[in-house]
Write a structure and sequence with these properties.
5-stranded parallel β-sheet; 6-stranded mixed β-sheet; alpha/beta; Rossmann fold
Length: 378
């Protein structure tokens, strides 16, 4: 079959040919499900004179479930990149729900939100549908609190009715979502709706590929100059399977954080990109949601002239550690000499402890931890 008819499989096999991936039969099989969605969406695209305000034609989506490190997010990357439509959105599940809750809160404070017939769910879904959204990609679909559990059925009832196709990744089968949760019987209609509107596919990949990237690697380098840079360049190519990467962005609270390089679920920053710019905890949490591995070049020694950078660095490491993100980094000074400012010395003790743990085989062998809802960081 021509590559333009199997764009996700073709993109996957191209990575295999380039040596960025080792071919996995389960991943190859999963590409067919993504390609089916693209074919269905293309066939359902309205054409002709009367297509300016078409009635959306629903296309059955996909719910890809598998253990950590099996390539679900990478497969989603390939699908999103190959999807030949503009009306698409990709976001972490908890970020999406954070935006929904913020929209509901704003609506309830407005004049319209105080009316007897006020419908906050209608208010937050209307802009999405009005924008023409056709495909919503949600990473790490996981329901652990009653607020989201009670909201999801009405939310997706409106989105599905508006013609939105859902493509989601998860570590949990639909029937296991919100397991043992309070009033779970009220959540069961959403599970039924989810299984009706998406094809549930289990990714039985053979290995934890994320773990293999870091197996036996020294992830920290110390000092400055071309030798240290060369060490980090080699490690970067190992993490990305030889892909050099390209610039990108992280959307955060209505603005965009530039990413100098990103590839295969990893991002590479300079210390100044993250800690010498006006970023905060919510920005770092979004970065931790978007990437499973982070490389930071040139982490500076932090004295009292860099107190703001030191505070941001503490917040950054906390966010990465809490999420279980893998860290590779180069430092100008040894860890125990990294901070020389008495004002941040106490807080830095915990940061140094976490940095030591984050280079351990035990930490590098673990999967990502469940994401913390962003409203917890407000």
């Amino acid at each position: 079959m021509p590559p333009d008819q199997t764009p996700v499989r073709s993109a996957y096999l191209d990575l295999v040919v380039r040596g960025a991936l080792t071919s996995d039969p389960a991943q190859v099989e999963a590409t067919a499900h993504f390609d089916r969605i693209i074919a269905d969406l293309t066939a359902a695209r309205p054409k002709g004179l009367f297509s300016l305000f078409p009635k959306p034609k629903p296309v059955r989506g996909l719910y890809l479930v598998g253990e950590v490190g099996r390539g679900k997010t990478m497969m989603m990357d390939l699908f999103f990149g190959a999807l030949p439509i503009r009306e698409k959105q990709r976001v972490h599940f908890h970020e999406f729900m954070d935006e929904v809750h913020a929209g509901i809160s704003a609506f309830r404070k407005s004049a319209r939100g105080r009316g007897d017939d006020a419908d906050p769910v209608e208010a937050v879904t209307r802009p999405l549908l009005k924008s023409g959204l056709r495909v919503l990609c949600l990473d790490e679909f996981h329901v652990h609190d009653i607020t989201n559990a009670m909201l999801l059925d009405r939310l997706f009832e409106k989105l599905f009715a508006g013609g939105v196709t859902l493509v989601a990744t998860s570590n949990v089968l639909p029937d296991e979502l919100y397991k043992d949760g309070l009033n779970r019987q009220l959540f069961l209609p959403f599970i039924a709706r989810l299984k009706e509107e998406t094809e549930v596919v289990v990714l039985h990949a053979a290995q934890d590929y994320r773990r293999l990237k870091f197996a036996g690697q020294q992830v920290y380098a110390f000092g400055t100059g071309p030798q240290v840079r060369a060490v980090m360049d080699r490690l970067w190519l190992r993490i990305t399977g030889g892909e050099p990467g390209q610039p990108g962005v992280v959307d955060s609270i209505g603005r965009q954080i530039p990413v100098p390089l990103q590839s295969m679920g990893a991002a590479r920053f300079n210390f100044a990109d993250l800690c010498e710019k006006p970023l905060g905890t919510r920005d770092f949490v979004r970065i931790a949601h978007q990437f499973d591995s982070l490389m930071i070049d040139g982490i500076k020694q932090m004295d009292r002239t860099r107190s703001d950078a030191a505070k941001r660095f503490i917040l950054l490491i906390d966010s990465l550690y809490d999420r279980g993100v893998k860290l590779a980094a180069s430092f100008e000074a040894p860890l125990d000499q990294l901070a020389t400012d008495d004002k941040t010395a106490f807080e830095f003790q915990r940061t140094i402890s976490r940095l030591n743990e984050m280079q351990s085989e035990e930490y590098l062998a673990k999967g990502l931890r469940d994401a913390v809802p962003l409203e917890a960081h407000a």
